[in-house]
Design brief:
With about 150 residues, this protein is α/β, with parallel strands linked by helices. Helices cover about 20% and strands about 40% of the residues. The radius of gyration is 15 Å and the shape is globular. About 35% of the residues are buried.
Length: about 150
């Protein structure tokens, strides 16, 4: 399971002209699910993300977590995190889990983040989404759990 985390000032997801999720300060979490990923990977990532200290304290050091600053998370499924571009010019996505396996795990991941105390908004699995991200810093971190 892979998560591309972006620290944001604000973010939103729009589907078919309707905003389906929006947050102020916090994280946009672009989530990819691979074959064999399950609850263990999702739980580890949820704990890691909830405790990650990447917000500045009064001295400008990364000492505060999303919980410390009262932030929220916006979870967006993104199978393209499993793109294989080693051959040719068109990416292959054979390492991405099928939607029937990925969708429930992305939903469960959102629940796990809520259980860690984070307010969570969700994108719409499988929809064409317009994601507006106001990256703060910019701070972008790759997290992966096999």
């Amino acid at each position: 399971m892979r998560v591309l985390l972006q620290r944001v000032e604000k973010a939103s997801v729009t589907v078919e002209g309707q905003v389906v999720g929006s947050i102020e300060q916090g994280y946009v979490l672009l989530v990819g699910v691979g074959h064999g990923d399950g609850e263990e990977q999702a739980a580890w990532l949820a704990r890691k993300i909830a405790g990650l200290r990447i917000f500045e304290d009064g001295e400008g050091k990364f000492n505060l977590s999303i919980q410390d600053v009262g932030g929220s998370a916006l979870v967006v499924s993104q199978f393209t995190l499993y793109a294989d571009t080693r051959k040719g010019r068109r990416p292959a996505f054979v390492d991405a889990a099928l939607p029937c396996a990925a969708e429930p795990l992305v939903e469960r991941f959102g629940e796990m983040l809520r259980a860690e105390g984070l307010p969570v908004e969700m994108g719409v699995f499988g929809a064409r989404m317009l994601v507006e991200i106001h990256n703060d810093g910019p701070v972008t971190i790759w997290l992966e759990r096999d």
